[in-house]
Specification:
This protein is α/β, with parallel strands linked by helices and 264 residues long. The chain has one domain: Rossmann fold. It is built from ten helices and ten strands. Helix 3 runs parallel beside helix 5 and helix 5 packs parallel to helix 6.
């Protein structure tokens, strides 16, 4: 479903701030793969997601989604195939529009627009049903402006919007990092539920090692713009945080130094 062939990305070329963010990264996701992606600051995790989504172009290599080479396609031309939830709950929704209007935009993703655009009563009932599954009381607030919602409510809504029309690739970029622990766990459980129910091919960046081990069928660790560990199946199920830190040290020759990840 997703094939990344030897991509590299460098920022601020020719300046004192030149940074090699990705170096010859290759990765293949089969349909239904749920990969958790972890690494220290500057490891290249978010850059990789931004390259897949088209936010950043790549300096070399190629990216294929469901067999289609999207390497040179713009972000908006990939949008019909990709669902994404960002770290900031303020992104991914239109704050000045109502809940039902945001859902309608997501429901029409990839469709041609016309002057006849509108929300039917049948569609509205469907949105109430979807929202009730969040258990946040949003099904009774369809007309409420999204900007009035809490961070957790908004992030749960963004997740629903990203999966409302089954995307070929779901990208979760530290989407619980800005939430309190209880709300973060709720959003993670919803994410896992939607991914399993829809058999969604997913890349989830997280700073939390426990979550990286607990969720998904594969765990990938990045370091200095490269993939250094790819753990899956029974090996992943037996993994502990101590094992992961030990394996990081053996492969990288360094001590894992991300305090946020270690303290989570």
């Amino acid at each position: 479903m997703l094939t990344i062939n030897g991509i590299s990305k460098k920022f601020n070329i020719g300046t004192i701030n030149e940074k090699q963010a990705l170096t010859n990264v290759s990765l293949t996701l089969e349909e239904g793969d749920f990969i958790t992606l972890i690494g220290g600051n500057g490891a290249g995790k978010s850059t990789l997601l931004n390259c897949v989504s088209g936010v950043h172009g790549v300096d070399q290599g190629s990216i294929l989604i469901d067999g289609l080479d999207v390497t040179k396609l713009s972000e908006h031309r990939r949008a019909g195939s990709i669902g994404r939830v960002f770290q900031d709950p303020m992104m991914g929704t239109a704050a000045n529009m109502g809940i039902e209007e945001n859902l309608a935009l997501a429901f029409r993703r990839g469709q041609s627009r016309s002057l006849k655009w509108g929300i039917t009563n049948k569609e509205r009932e469907r949105y109430r049903e979807y929202l009730s599954q969040l258990d946040l009381g949003l099904e009774n607030r369809l007309s409420s402006k999204v900007g009035l919602l809490s961070g957790g409510q908004r992030q749960a809504l963004t997740l629903l919007m990203a999966t409302l029309i089954r995307p070929k690739i779901l990208l979760l970029d530290e989407h619980t990092a800005a939430l309190d622990p209880k709300t973060a766990e709720k959003v993670l459980q919803l994410s896992d539920q939607y991914i399993k129910e829809g058999n969604l091919t997913t890349l989830m960046v997280t700073h939390n090692m426990v979550n990286a081990i607990q969720y998904g069928n594969r765990l990938i660790m990045m370091h200095e713009g490269r993939i250094i560990l790819d753990i899956r199946g029974e090996e992943k199920q037996r993994l502990t945080v101590e094992d992961l830190l030990c394996r990081f040290g053996k492969v990288s020759g360094e001590v894992f130094a991300n305090d946020r990840a270690l303290l989570s």
